[in-house]
TrEMBL record, chain A:
PROSITE patterns: BHLH. It comes from Trapa natans (Water chestnut). Keywords: Nucleus, Transcription, Transcription regulation. The keyword Transcription regulation applies. This is BHLH domain-containing protein.
UniProtKB/TrEMBL annotation, chain B:
Residues 178-286 are annotated as: Disordered. InterPro entries: bHLH_dom, bHLH_ZIP_TF, HLH_DNA-bd_sf. Residues 249-286 have a biased composition (Basic and acidic residues). SMART domains: HLH (SM00353). Residues 298-348 form the BHLH domain. GO terms for cellular component: nucleus. This is BHLH domain-containing protein. GO terms for molecular function: DNA binding; DNA-binding transcription factor activity; protein dimerization activity. Gene3D superfamilies: Helix-loop-helix DNA-binding domain.
Amino acid sequence: MTLARDTAMKNPTNSLKRRFSLKFLKTLVRIRKSRPPPSPSASSSWEIRWRAQKIKLAAYSSMALSVGSKRTWSRALTMKLRATMGNRRWSSWKGSKKMTKRRIVAKKNMEKRHLEKDMNSGLQQLRQLVPGGESMDPRSLLEETAHFVRCLETQVRVMRSIVEGFPC
Amino acid sequence: MEGNIGIPVAMEVDPSGQGSLSSCFFDPRWDNSISMEQIDPFDSTRSSIVSSPVASSLGAGEGDGGMIKELIGRLGVISSGSSGHVSPQPFLGHMSTNNSTNGSSFTTPLNSPPKLSLSTMGHRIRGSFPPLSEDCLVPFATDPGFAERAARFSSLGSRDFAVGLDGKNARVSSSIVEGGDSWEGSSLSEQVHGGETGNVKKTQHVDVSAKKRKLVQRGKLDAVTPKGSEVSGGNNHTSTKKIKSCQAAEKEGSGKEPDEREAMAAREEKMQKHGKDSHSKQQEPPKDYIHVRARRGQATDSHSLAERVRREKISQRMKALQDLVPGCNKITGKALMLDEIINYVQSLQRQVEFLSMKLSTLNPRMDINMEAFLRKDIFQSRESILPTDSSPAHVFPYGLLPSHGTIAAISPVQLPENLLDAATTPIHRSPTIHFPHIEGFSTVPSQVLGVWEDDLQTVVQMGIAPNLQPISFHLGAGSTEPNHGQMKVES
């Protein structure tokens, strides 16, 4: 029993889970304490949406933070979230498409290199899904996708178990 | 070993009617010349990538002395480093330009291991006409380093010799290359497989190619004799002064392993002999050593190889992803698989969205609770490896469910330490968690629990949530009758 537990502890995804849930729970507590800013509509549904968005951002950012900077997608995600939170545009954090010069160059390169090779648009779609995937070559894109998927699963599991922990 | 090495003579009569007799001499400076390495098959892909620029330079080297010079420099660098492997395949493209070599290149077994090392040799190239002279052979005996190396080779079980032969009376140092009008570089390598176990001592192959530009090559392929000495010769007649000779000799160790192989030295030389053109040029067509990793019918040029390697890697990643995404196992086809992966990622993101929405609508009264969870979580993560021991939790594996057992679906209270455990359950599991509970829980052997530990569905901890009624389990104290357990679960 202790052996199984030990191996489970050594499992990196397990420690990732632990780190993520710690961070996320902390942020969650803070979010729940916080009050939404005065809104134009001030309706309760707006507040709920605000909260949900906050929680979603918190989930993603704590995931990215718990992964660290060793992964491309987590770096990209952190940058994106930081830009979003700085702009207070929480409602469209995915839509921060401000093209920096670097990104434009990267995109050009990407198009040149990969566009013809993507026989199907699958990889292109995948690029839009995985943070930072716009400028990746297919191989690293697939790698990052694998890691990203694993982290997303962990995230969903933790969040779900938190939700289940609360009776509604 | 010395005995093996000492017989590096390849004689050949040129079928072209030149009737040139070539005798080859070895004066190997082993210090410079031998690089040997064993590469496992997986490294070969990498090595082929590394080697491809070299091959291209080889191909370009014809007709350009400057390119040759560069090539030699590269070869020297490669061979000096331990990492200097060149997989034979890149030579194929080059060799294919030499008409003579194609046939022999394919004679090498397909399954031969991708070991090839190029070495440049600082050696003397003796004149073609003189027969074997002792002074050539002397260095073998006198060179103390040689014996040492030979021992090492034999220990490795593969012996490679790179021997530079030249039919010319010229002394060539690898570092000196004069730009010529056109050079042809050829690399020769040959492999002998020791299917014959009886021949402990294999002879070497000597390949000599001397080429001059504007030369008609006559390729000649010689069968490999079991004795292991093989010479293939082709004569190139040269009107030019420059000769490049590449020599390769391979020798196979006495070991049974057919795969051991040796590598080859490529050397280039320039000779300027105007007057001697008529008589002396003797060529032995390059023996090619081509290690073919491509399967039958596959292209073997470097681009195709690189592309194949790339595709291979991508498909590896795809495979890893396929394992991750549920339901993706049965799908064949990259496009479908990608679609599936995309769908999965999207569904996960949607789930995150949904869950965060759900979390935001939770009962505000739970705030306090959450803090308690959080504290507990920190405590737990710091402290215990065995949360099930530290908390009044009960583990109910599926398999313990007896026929009389009752399953009660309760709304579980997940505590942080439980949360981590519960998170191990698959995502697609239904949110309601079933707690099989049997009276005879205590009778279950501990090792069985240990086995099921990883499968544990949930760990229920009681009495934490203040606004919930604690979940109570009544365990029969005696538990003499496991199948008649009484169970009370309240949610």
